[in-house]
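Notebook entry, structure prediction.
Reason for the run: the old model in the group folder had no record of what sequence produced it. Starting over properly, with the input documented here first.
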Amino acid sequence: MSTRAASRPVGTVTRGTTNPNRLRRMDRWIAAVHGAELRRTADPVAVDLGYGAAPWTAVELLQRLRAAAPRTRVVGVEIEPARVAAAQAYAREGLVFRHGGFEVPVPGRPSLIRAANVLRQYEEGEVAAVWERLCARLSPADPATGSGGGLLVEGTCDEIGRRHVWVALGPEGPRTVTFATRLGSLERPSDLAERLPKALIHRNVPGEPVHSFLHDFDRAWAAAAPYASYGARQRWIRTVRRLTADWPVTDGPARWRQGEVTVAWGALAPRA
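New structure, fully documented this time:
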């Protein structure tokens, strides 16, 4: 293999669609659940992988993570060289931009890799290999210090950030799936199905766990209709409480109030 071929970024160019504040729900969740890990890391580095045609999401990620872990540095990584060149005007202390792809061209092991709306254009059969490659780049767990290792957050959202679904993975692989929404825009929970990440979106069919989950979610939402008079938030909280009877919900009311619910990956993983 030639040196030129070996240095070629891994992956393909995305459409690059992006908007300010598009990833605010994902960022808010990362800061809440991974902030402690970032704070105890000596040199916490977060990667915004495939930030798109404009660097808004990388700039915002730095701001939001530093509110939880002030020493965090962010590296924006893009496979399209012109986008990297255009982003340099936004570089600052703690924020740099680099040309690259799934090889994640940063020194050492990052504490966080966020890949939002990147795998949407890939085939379902390609996802596992990408996950494995990215998880191998994360900082490892260290039981001696209580560290759970780095975190990969991979998922999809709509154009203005009202609806998200993402998978959180550690060095060992998938951990959880989070559904997050602006509650005032939601007619029923299964509306989030169109934002399922690539690993799950084609599995929303009868016989698959994610389909059963969304069906139960809608049923619990309908049963909680009387709580709508107290507001969409109260209806959502009541709905998720019902779900906990049959599904391994891993978070609690503090996150539910944000229009979120997180479920163990094993309960929603595609059947072989």
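Summary: The chain has a mean pLDDT of 94.
The old model has been moved to the deprecated folder.
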